[in-house]
Amino acid sequence: MSGLHTVLCERLGCRYPIVQTAMGWIADSRLVAATSNAGGFGFLAAATMSTELLASEIAAVRGATAANFGVNFHMFQPNAREVIELVLKNADRVRAVSYGRGPDAQTIKRFKDAGVLCMPTVGALKHAVKAVQLGADIITVQGAEGGGHTGSVPTTLLLPQVLDAVNVPVVAAGGFHNGRGLAGALAFGAAGIAMGTRFLMTAESPVPRETLARYVDIQDPSRIRASTAVDGLPQRMIDNPFLLRLESGGRLHHLMVALASAWRWRAHTGMSVGHMVRTFFAALREGDSAIQTMMAANAPVLIQRAMVQGRPDEGVLPSGQVAAVLDSLPPVAELIESIVVQAEQRLAALSAPPASAPAALAS
């Protein structure tokens, strides 16, 4: 059996240990189906979907592939309970859920009882340990190189820490884009890799061409950096005029942007004013500052401008540093095939006997 057939493949039911992460506005049914059909495992980004849209997208994936797939959500979205019920209703095909701010132990048990695996993403060792205590079946570890919300510890340091601390399969994320990375992650002891930016930059990506061009053109990793200007938490993004303006504004400017974003997000999700207030106080109980809580709606609204509306200079561009070494938009099937071939070559090279020394050196 191939060295690429790991416990992750057994658990998720995919051919290769390659996971497409759930990027808001990007991980739609077309991208997920393409990933699953190519042998990987894709997650739908339900955190930016209404209940009706998610139901439609789940049906679209079911119709486009016979493979399993996953759904990503978080408990602060207004339709979280409806998302949970939709997942449970489709538990015959939705093999896993991913999340950051995750459900409580009781909800996790409901998933597990239905045969749905819980696969949170963490950026710190303590969060990995806590997630397993709550019942996580698989842990995705994202190092600082990754896009979107990210921690400060690079993958090469965080991954072995988590591997030593938990007794569930661990998936490595942050900086992965080819077969060398997959082979390296497996050598560390991971069960596979998860990629966001690499799947964002594919032919099946729904991101408008104007925005994708910014990702292809970026060549300096230092211009893909973490900033707290969007929602008060470190989020890795590509430098652009909007981000620079947001960072240069004062507290009042940040507050005004946050209020406008919250109102637009309320309209998009159908969230009532009462639900906004309850969410605000729930976030405060979780330890968020008031300003950070109000800024929480910034990310989906500002990302939407670039990723859906095709206005890359008027929104933000979440990205892993890996975008700086990518210059093409291959089809998903071609991408996964190239990763598999290269990883098998690297693993074979590691297990091959050393070549004999030249005669002149041997003497």
The major pleated sheet works out as:
9 strands, parallel
Tell me the name of the CATH class of the largest domain.
Alpha Beta
CATH topology of the largest domain: TIM Barrel
**From the helix content, strand content and strand pairing, which structural class follows?**
alpha/beta
* Quantity of strands, as a count: 12
Shape: globular
Q: Enumerate how many helices there are, as a single number.
A: 17
Radius of gyration, in Å, reads 21 Å
The main sheet orders its strands as 5-4-3-2-1-10-9-7-6
Strand content: 5-15%
Tally of separate domains:
2
**Would you identify the CATH H-level superfamily of the largest domain?**
Aldolase class I
Low-confidence stretches: none
- Report how far apart the termini are: 41 Å
**What integer is the average pLDDT?**
88
What order do the helices and strands follow? Answer: HEHEHEHEHEEHEEHEHEHHEEHHHHHHH
The helix content, as a percent range, equals 40-55%
> Would you identify the CATH architecture of the largest domain?
Alpha-Beta Barrel
